Amino acid sequence: MPSKSKYNTESMFNWIREAIRLFFSQLGLSGQFLSFVSAITTAAMLICAGVILYYIIRIILQNAIRIANKRFPSKWKTSLLKERFFIQLSFILPILIIRNLASEFFLQGTKSEIVFAAILNIFLILNVTLILIAFLRALCDILLQLEASKDKPIKSYVQIVSIIIWAISIILIVSILINKSPALFLTGLGGFTAILMLVFQDTIVGFVNSIQLSSNDLVRNGDWITVSKYDADGTVEEINLISVKVRNFDNTISTVPVRQLVTDTFQNWRGMEEQGVRRIKRSFFIDSSSIAKPTPEMLSKINLPQETNLGCFREYLAEYLKNRGDISTDSTLLIRLLPTNEFGVPVELYCFAKTIEWLDYEKIQAEVMEHVLVALPQFNLVHYQRK
Fold first, then answer.
1. Is 326 within 8 Å of 366 (Cβ atoms)?
2. How far apart are CA 233 and CA 230, in angstroms?
3. How far apart are CA 249 and CA 235, in angstroms?
4. Closest by CA position to 116, among listed 44, 168, 61
5. Phi and psi at residue 223, in whole multiples of 5°?
6. How far apart, in Å, are the Cα atoms of 137 and each of 64, 161, 327?
7. For residues 174 and 90, what is the distance between their CA atoms, to the nearest angstrom?
């Protein structure tokens, strides 16, 4: 025997339903049109009630989380707020309440009840999907802040999981629209496998390439890479399924296809950054007519005897570099002669600065080359310059 409260609630719902129908019948509506308008009005009334309930829950939940996050800061709460997780979560309760009330406002088995229930089910599936996607994005943000995983292509994996979630949601929605079991729908999906493979070709290839990038440790988030073909020279900010986002040193953004980094050549400066030194490799030309035997004064500046003033200069320059505190003496340091050409005798300076900071590195390199130009006349050497 139903309880008195339940009986009263059902009577109230019946009264509202009948009042809506009576109102429109008094306006002269009848038959199927009366039923249609009454159903639309009832659905609109329920949706409005659900929207009001949604905003109440959203305001309470959002403010409660923000206050809690101010008192007890948490990366999780911050990321979930940023990804609008709680906004999507606020939809759940209103949808469930409306679904429960729909059977009271609509006669069971009628087209109105079936259509409205289908719409609510579709909206519920979409809402749950968006909740899961928001959670995955928040999880991605958290993982990218951790030392152990911040240099991994986390976004690629999140995108794959998101695609799977959306695929399942679409299958469920289509099954509701055609009023068929999802299992039956999946059985008939086999014939479209080739089409699906074609549609998601870039996604599948991108996922495989992302796995290759990660497993072979070719690129990490935060790496400095140079890809001349795409005018990319800067820090990797994001690795997703399709592309790698690079912030160049002039703050422009370059996008490099993931496939390019797997199949073609590029330069990764991570090794330099890990060792804490950066190579200086500069060359200059000596006018061959200025090369001569050394003077006693030149020989006094170096520890070893040399046959020419150029040899004395090379020894002097090597000692100069070794005595600079910002040049690494543990790494390769040499001054060598390259094959002579029509511009004279090329001299190459090869060493490593004890810094990877761009400004400091350029300053050291400039000071070294300036010293070279100033020191050349002391050895009666002339720097070649085309006239």
1. no
2. 9
3. 8
4. 44
5. -70, 150
6. 21, 11, 44
7. 25
Contact call for residues 218 and 212 (beta carbons, < 8 A): yes
Cβ burial of 228 (10 Å; 0-12, 13-18, 19+) is: exposed
Alpha carbon distance, N-terminus to C-terminus of the chain: 110
- Name the burial class of residue 144, with classes exposed (0-12), middle (13-18) and buried (19+) by CB atoms within 10 angstroms of its CB: middle
Round to whole Å and give the CA distance between 167 and 181: 16
β-pairing verdict for 232-239 and 278-286: unpaired
Which letter does DSSP use for residue 344 in this model? B
Helix (H, G, I), strand (E, B) or coil at 22: helix
CA–CA dist 267, 232 (Å, integer): 10
Amino acid identity of residue 320, one-letter, is Y
**Residue 268: CB partners within 8 Å, gap ≥ 6?**
218, 219, 223, 224, 225
The two three-digit tokens of residue 32, written as one number: 């199927």
81 contacts 65 by C-beta, under 8 angstroms = yes
Contact 311, 305 (CB under 8 A): no
CA neighbor of 80 nearest in space, from 37, 132, 155, 33: 132
Compute the distance between CA of residue 200 and CA of residue 162 in angstroms, rounded to an integer. Answer: 13
Residue 33 burial by CB count (10 A; 0-12/13-18/19+): exposed, middle or buried? Answer: exposed
Structural tokens at position 175? 């099954």
pLDDT per residue as tens digits for the range 37-96: 777 787 888 888 889 999 999 999 988 988 988 888 888 888 888 888 998 899 988 888
Encode pLDDT of 14-48 as tens digits. Answer: 666 667 667 767 676 666 776 677 777 878 888 88
- Torsion angle of C-alpha atoms 223, 226, 229, 231, degrees rounded to 10: 90
C-alpha count within 13 angstroms, C-beta hemisphere, residue 203: 14
pTM confidence score: 0.55
In angstroms, rounded to a whole number, what is the distance separating the alpha carbons of residues 267 and 200?
30
Q: Which of 279, 275, 218 is nearest to 244 (CA)?
A: 218
Query: Which residues are 268's β-sheet partners?
Result: 225
- The tokens describing 139, both together, are 């999880």
109: alpha, beta or left? (left if phi > 0; alpha if psi -120 to 50): left
Q: List, in sequence order, the alpha helices (H) in 304-357.
A: 309-323
